[in-house]
TrEMBL record:
<dbReference type="GO" id="GO:0008710">
    <property type="term" value="F:8-amino-7-oxononanoate synthase activity"/>
</dbReference>
<dbReference type="InterPro" id="IPR050087">
    <property type="entry name" value="AON_synthase_class-II"/>
</dbReference>
<dbReference type="GO" id="GO:0030170">
    <property type="term" value="F:pyridoxal phosphate binding"/>
</dbReference>
<dbReference type="InterPro" id="IPR004839">
    <property type="entry name" value="Aminotransferase_I/II_large"/>
</dbReference>
<feature type="domain" description="Aminotransferase class I/classII large">
    <location>
        <begin position="165"/>
        <end position="417"/>
    </location>
</feature>
<dbReference type="InterPro" id="IPR015421">
    <property type="entry name" value="PyrdxlP-dep_Trfase_major"/>
</dbReference>
<protein>
    <recommendedName>
        <fullName>8-amino-7-oxononanoate synthase</fullName>
        <ecNumber>2.3.1.47</ecNumber>
    </recommendedName>
</protein>
<keyword id="KW-0012">Acyltransferase</keyword>
<keyword id="KW-0808">Transferase</keyword>
<dbReference type="InterPro" id="IPR015422">
    <property type="entry name" value="PyrdxlP-dep_Trfase_small"/>
</dbReference>
<dbReference type="InterPro" id="IPR015424">
    <property type="entry name" value="PyrdxlP-dep_Trfase"/>
</dbReference>
<dbReference type="Pfam" id="PF00155">
    <property type="entry name" value="Aminotran_1_2"/>
</dbReference>
Length: 437
């Protein structure tokens, strides 16, 4: 029997007054713009959930089965038998965890992955750290120093946190908007060097890529570096060519190659925690910059490394990508197109103009976020309901992520549920006319 709204609500925590003054000083502080997020996290079944079981892209929470459309495992490698079965041999060879910080020593798979990555990306070199979060917090300040950082307003929160680190070390930080590059141009003229412009690659909410064709010439004209966080593009989109299996391009070597740009004055950051279903991240840069970062980026010196299982799934994942990546991307593209076509057929709109597998559907009234999320949950759809301030108020809505491990039936069920949801909680309409039939 599926759970109801009432049984899904979790008890609220004890009132802050039950805590000692030391804790009250912490807990009494207002959360400010994260108040709504906090409320939903505590009360909504689709947040902070404990998943008891998975079966393909079906997940069980308590006794309620849902289809997972909140997964970033775009290629479905989390469920890939070849990768799963390869892991124990690496554990036998290397134990569970190297435990040295990378400055002290790294097991051989690190070198292998960095070499394979550089070749895949077509970059001179690559440096691995555990997560993109580590990279944003350490590589951004290492690059900027006392110079100037320009962060796109809608870049991922980890980039804005990295910007705070830059500011704390004497760098200058300014925000800009991708659709107001004239302003960035003016800001760059007066900025101290080094100058770094930071943007998301494939955007985690809109699913669209950045205007590299405008940003790169601007960066080069001002002797600035362009730093691109392609967490969601790496593994999904890649270089274009006559043999590509889908419009996502080939090899999954990221948004820079997909848009036909090169790496001059460009730092590409990407991660394995999405398409590769692992815990590793990289900075693609010239070897000399890599050597500099080994001494300048804190996590290389002070943090624990990725576990061996992550090195194994990263390394074997890259090999699987070589052999089977095109088929997986073709399937991912086909499923995403089925969803986008169906959405248009329902007359519903999305921020996604790229066709990539992140599809956000805004609500007309942001106050409906919670009831919409509960409705989807009850109907067996597990998706991210994105509140303010994660997205601007006019973009509050539901984010659907498709993976190659989803099925046609799951997409059709999702569309049926969204059609019903749209009747109750008005969603943004498609800008063009709905597809006939
Ligand atoms: C755009 C973007 N950058 C960075 C991150 C953080 O990545 P990691 O898990 O490697 O720290 C995410 C994760 O959601 C993301 O969406």
């Amino acid at each position: 029997m599926s759970q109801t709204f009432e049984t899904l609500g979790r008890p609220l925590p004890p009132a802050p007054s039950a805590f000692s003054p030391a804790w009250r000083h912490v807990l009494d502080r207002p959360l400010g713009i994260r108040t709504e997020l906090d409320r939903m996290r505590r009360q909504a079944p689709f947040y902070d959930a404990t998943v008891d079981e998975i079966d393909g892209r079906r997940i069980r929470i308590g006794d309620h089965w849902l289809t997972d459309f909140a997964s970033c495992n775009y290629l479905g490698l989390d469920l890939d038998r070849e990768i799963i079965e390869a892991v124990p041999a690496y554990l036998d060879l290397w134990g569970t965890h190297p435990s040295w910080s990378r400055l002290i020593a790294s097991p051989r798979p690190y070198d292998d992955i960095e070499r394979m990555l550089a070749e895949l990306l077509g970059a001179e070199d690559a440096l691995l750290l555990p997560t993109i979060t580590h990279i944003q917090h350490s590589v951004l300040p290492a690059l900027v120093g006392r110079g100037a950082l320009f962060v796109e307003l809608h870049a991922h929160q980890t980039a804005h946190d990295g910007a705070a680190m830059v500011a704390s070390r004497g760098g200058t930080v300014a925000r800009f908007r991708e659709d107001r590059l004239d302003r960035l141009d003016r800001l760059l003229r007066a900025a101290p060097h080094p100058r770094v412009i930071c943007v998301d690659g494939v955007h985690s909410m809109t699913g669209n890529g950045p205007p590299l064709d405008e940003l790169l010439p601007l960066a080069r004209a001002h002797d600035a570096l362009l730093y691109v966080d392609d967490a969601h593009g790496f593994g999904v989109v890649g270089e274009r060519g006559p043999d590509e299996s889908s419009p996502y391009g080939s090899r999954g070597n990221g948004i820079v190659r997909h848009l036909g740009a090169g790496y001059d004055n460009l730092v590409l950051v990407g991660g394995f925690s999405k398409a590769y279903s692992s815990l590793l991240a990289f900075v693609a840069c010239p070897t000399e910059v890599k050597e500099y970062l080994k001494s300048a980026a804190g996590p290389y010196i002070f943090s624990g490394p990725s576990p061996v299982a992550s090195l194994a799934t990263g390394l074997v994942g890259l090999r699987v990508n070589e052999r089977r990546g095109e088929a997986l991307r073709a399937r991912l593209h086909r499923l995403t197109s089925r969803f986008l076509d169906g959405l248009r057929g329902l007359g519903l709109g999305t921020l996604n103009t790229s066709g990539f597998p992140i599809v956000e559907i805004p609500l007309l009234d942001a106050d409906n976020a919670d009831p919409l999320g509960r409705f989807l949950y009850e109907r067996g759809v597990f998706a991210s309901v994105v509140p303010f301030p994660v997205v601007p108020r006019d973009q509050v809505g539901v984010r659907i992520q498709i993976t190659a491990a989803n099925t046609d039936d799951e997409i059709d069920h999702l569309l049926a549920v969204l059609g019903e949801a749209g009747d109750r909680f008005p969603l943004v309409a498609a800008s063009g006319p709905p597809d006939p039939g």
